[in-house]
Amino acid sequence: MTFSLSGRGDRAGAVHAFAAPYLLFLGDVTEPGFAKTAFGLRDWAGDRCIGEHALPDATVSTGLARLTPAQAAASGARTMVIGVANQGGVIPPSWVRELLAAIEAGLDLVAGMHSRLQNIEELRDAAARAGTRLIDLRVPPPNLPVASGRKRTGRRLLTVGTDCALGKKYTALSLARGLGERGVDAIFRASGQTGIMIAGEGIAIDAVIADFAAGAAELLSPDAAPDHLDVIEGQGSLFHPAYAGVSLALLHGSQPDQFVVCHEPGRRQILGTAGMELPTIEAVIEQTVALGRLTSPAIRCVGVSLNTGRMSPKDANREIEETSARLGLPAADPIRGGVAFDRLLDACR
Amino acid sequence: MTFSLSGRGDRAGAVHAFAAPYLLFLGDVTEPGFAKTAFGLRDWAGDRCIGEHALPDATVSTGLARLTPAQAAASGARTMVIGVANQGGVIPPSWVRELLAAIEAGLDLVAGMHSRLQNIEELRDAAARAGTRLIDLRVPPPNLPVASGRKRTGRRLLTVGTDCALGKKYTALSLARGLGERGVDAIFRASGQTGIMIAGEGIAIDAVIADFAAGAAELLSPDAAPDHLDVIEGQGSLFHPAYAGVSLALLHGSQPDQFVVCHEPGRRQILGTAGMELPTIEAVIEQTVALGRLTSPAIRCVGVSLNTGRMSPKDANREIEETSARLGLPAADPIRGGVAFDRLLDACR
């Protein structure tokens, strides 16, 4: 890896943080879509993953070495990360034996599912005996503060979106990596469970009690050196009727100097609503500046990240060029990269 | 009482709801400021309070009949409400005997403090034996939904503010009562713990997990008859760096047709910040419309509620008249009432 994902361990207790290297647990997964977290870890934190462990029924693999928990521990692993989800987000009884084996091998366990490791008595007892930790990323860290609005040192960039689930995490990871490769002291800051698994640190902002959400966002990107850049993973959208409050708390607490708008060309309706119209990129820029200047008076948009995965290369390039020309801002698809992405990175420096 | 506080019981389980009449518990309070909740209940829900109960050391009284829990139960009381707070929001050991006496008399207990009834083992055991309920208003109801953004039937008015703690609850209560007296089918909807105690029903929005805050606000004011008006208690401020996310979730979930801006003349700085400047009433109107129209396209400001408690009657009247003239909207102090308040009520009809 050529970029730093986080300042691991410096705020343990205040944010979720866990130790590398990791063994990835795949359960009995047969559907690659349910192993997205494991693939994300392999792709973005490959240097911290030393192997995978699965039940005999699993048919999906990350391509990493197959290791039992005991073998992984002997090779230096510190944590087994549950890198797989299933419908309902539950931890099935068939996984428990393998989770116990990991605890007995001295590994901490990390999960981001709805059902909690802490609620399974066998795991709780075994972890207490072994002196290992059960880390549920959907349980917010204790003693989060109320936000103060105090301006912090260092620089911050936040990814925002025209909607949910269109590339805010991927964009933030790509920007942090690209800027790191160009010599910028940049760190990815995770605000969601998959991001936290990749970074090894963070707070799932949407799982925090509403009164403390902005305070949690303040903790996420602490004071830093003047030229240091935190690239903060956005959540939701200011135009989503269910999640705008979370997005606003994250915007206010992050106090970004810069933001990048993420958008999926062709998406017309807000996810999970009965036909609410997607806002334009222009409307998102205007609203983000209008609201963000409360805690960051000089906030500005530095570019646009387009998720063109469903378009042909030709259509994608045209969309990127037209968007850039229309807004007078760099636009790029980080997955396609190229000169357009170089220009977006230059604008973030 | 000439106005309806809530539609008690129709959504039990989804919102906090408890049964009248109440016995108000005052603990060992010697400082009237700490008994604000009890006074609020006496003033706004007097017909549902049949008495008060205090320890011998207490020197503050609501003026209601002094009844032991057993006497109150014999007179028909269903619930003992802890109407007093102390520094730290804890339940001191000296109260436990009286709380146990209430449980043994068959009363449910309601508390809105940081420390929870449910966490005191003796109370939990006693309530299990007696078949009574321990209701902690700071624990959100289970299984809250994610907001859908679906437009609901009926009319809604939300009180919003230039800051926290300047009269949004009092204004909503006054509007609901005043409109009820004028024949409007209006209900007060409580979004904070004191409001819930007064209404006997509601959800403390700021205590909800951020992802579900807008969903909780949708539950709070369900579908209703076309001419029915829910008067919803606002929280925080869109300009408060710690609470704007909560305010936005409440705005989106409430989908108000109308809103009233609450303001305290003379307040210059946002509460709890190091000198952040208070927004103007004009800025609050503009921002509330810009954000609120996502779920309520026809949203509009119908007036201003001024908290002039620290001003002379003459200064207060001048401030009310100047504000009304400047904005071209009715302005009033609900506590002072008068013609100005009549005009504000007319604008809400």
From TrEMBL, chains A, B:
UniProt-listed InterPro entries: DgcN-like, DgcN-like_C, DgcN-like_N, P-loop_NTPase
Domain D-glutamate N-acetyltransferase-like N-terminal, chain residue ranges per copy: 63-140
Signal peptide stretch: none
Domain D-glutamate N-acetyltransferase-like C-terminal: 146-339
A Pfam family reported for this protein in Swiss-Prot or TrEMBL: DUF1611
Domain of life: Bacteria
Name assigned to this protein: Putative NAD-dependent epimerase/dehydratase family protein
Annotated organism of origin: Sphingomonas aerophila
